[in-house]
Amino acid sequence: EAVIAAPRVARELGALLGELRADVEVFDTIRVGQFAGEGEHAARRVLHLGDLFSVRYERWLAAIDAGMHSDAQPLGEFAMMLPRALRGPVGHWRIYRAALELERRLVARREAELVGRFDGTTLVSEEEAESLRRRTGCGSVAAIPPAVPGPDLVDRRLEGRARFLFVGHLGVPHNADALAHLLAAGPERVFRGCPDADLTIWPRRGGAP
Q1: What pTM did the predictor assign?
Q2: End-to-end Cα, the chain, rounded Å
Q3: What is the pLDDT of the chain when averaged over all its residues?
């Protein structure tokens, strides 16, 4: 949130919302929710958190303590927005664990603060929504699970050898977990429909493929 905070953005967004006169304004995550000013705005404002970053950080800290992701890059894509002198030290697991613990406490407090500034707050998980309701005493927190319909089955007739491509920043824990689970399942299970398939892994580290 602090990395992208900018008074100019807040002013320009406030002016734009005043011109649009929308019926409902939806702010996506805390990073954007910080720009919800007190000026002219819609009759209803909603903050979509998606998931609780405080819970995400708790799980990340637990993974670190369990010996997992010791080489993770907690800054992710935000690293390029910070002075180069700070990027190296934060890469050491002892330092980034302390940084994550601090961020967890700060973001938990911020989640509670922002809920009171909006008419409604949404999350994907009902469990996390209930957790935030208990923590804040706010009844306007709701869970809205994904409503995207599953794809229709397509009869694909492959010509030649199948090739799958995995692209992801492996310094981000959920990407590393996804790849680890894919490989642990074994090729005979993952590629049973096309056992001769190739899997190419194109990792991204430090912002470059």
Answers
A1: 0.69
A2: 26
A3: 81
Q: Are 165 and 182 in contact (CB under 8 A)?
A: no
Kindly list the distances between the CA atom of residue 196 and the CA atoms of 20, 166, 189, in Å, as whole numbers in the listed order: 55, 17, 12
Q: Are 46 and 119 in contact (CB under 8 A)?
A: yes
Q: Which of 37, 34, 49, 48 is nearest to 1 (CA)?
A: 34
For the chain, state the CA radius of gyration.
Answer: 21
d(CA 156, CA 200): 21
CA–CA separation, 199 and 189 (whole Å): 13
User: Whole-angstrom Cα distance, residue 21 to residue 61?
Assistant: 42
> 140-185, pLDDT tens digit by residue?
999 998 777 777 777 777 777 888 888 877 766 677 777 887 888 7
SS3 string, the chain, reads CCCCCCHHHHHHHHHHHHHHCCCEEEEEHHHHHCCCCCCCCCCEEEEEEECCHHHHHHHHHHHHHCCCCCCCCCCHHHHHHCCHHHHHHHCCHHHHHHHHHHHHHHHHHHHHHHHCCCCEEEECCHHHHHHHHHHHCCCCEEECCCCCCCCCCCCCCCCCCCEEEEEEECCCHHHHHHHHHHHHHCHHHHCCCCCCCEEEEEEEECCEC
